[in-house]
Amino acid sequence: MRVLVLGATGYLGGHVVEHLRARPGTRVLVGGRSPAAEVTVDLASDPPHHLAKALASAAPDAVVNCAGATGGDAVTLAEVNARGPAVLCAALLRAAPGARLVHLGSAAEYGPGTPGRRVAESAATRPAGPYGATKLAGTVAVTASGLDAVVLRVGNPVGPGAPPTGLPGRVTALLRDAGHGPDAVVRLGDLSAHRDFVDVRDVARAAWLAATAPGPLPPVLNIGGGAAVPVRELVRGLVEVAGFRGRIVEEGASGSARSAQVSWQCSDITAARDALGWRPSHSLDASLAALWAAAGSAPRRPEGAPAR
């Protein structure tokens, strides 16, 4: 089976590639802008006919689209998260209409949740900002394309290699750079929100199952931990696994706008279990331990360099 992975150099994409390469009989093709890519494409700027030519030469049985932007201005988010999936679908219809498309969406597409309730795929989508709105536009492009396609709406990914652009990776980097003395201080924003954390390795397994499942799949499947976890609990878990003996200072005014707008997030993952036989296999504690272990082997930020 030939599987083309787009966005393979990113956090989710890297884990998807690693998981697929471990599957016997799977030929993984890496697509993207990198010079090392086997299939050179740029979903943010390539016209459909260029993408179609690249896809025709790759001849994939399935395409897993992990390309996406989590930060930047609204134009950047729209180019990658909305235009990208739309032009990919147009190109697939021309070049490989029989290939299955697995597109990674985001639970941010749902917007604010109701405390105590899990959100099913049939729930109304009310994204709270440009990120969720552009991811939702990408989902609409995929589900309306007529392709054999499924969108995996991923919760908050956590686990080895988490980047500093997300909370788990940012807290890990701050703890690593703060030292372990009792006088160390790590300053964070508002930690009162609840999030649905899912191990990145479980996301990769879901992508594999979705790419290889027989027959048609539901258009959208939630991929999450299935529980709303207080963000403070995640931070406490990282503090414990890091052996941090200093102080965590929570400065509510410095929290992100999205945290203020979306205080509760929890996905109902029943449909993924029924359609794919998938359920999360890593506990949050195991995810945090793997995240810290991977960070310990990463290069430390040079002395005096700005924290991100």
Automatic annotation (TrEMBL):
Residues 3-224 form the NAD-dependent epimerase/dehydratase domain. This is NAD-dependent epimerase/dehydratase family protein. Pfam families: Epimerase. The lineage of its organism: Bacteria, Bacillati, Actinomycetota, Actinomycetes, Kitasatosporales. PANTHER family: DTDP-D-GLUCOSE 4,6-DEHYDRATASE-RELATED. InterPro entries: Epimerase_deHydtase, NAD(P)-bd_dom_sf. SUPFAM superfamilies: NAD(P)-binding Rossmann-fold domains. It comes from the Bacteria. Belongs to the NAD(P)-dependent epimerase/dehydratase family. It comes from Streptomyces glaucus.
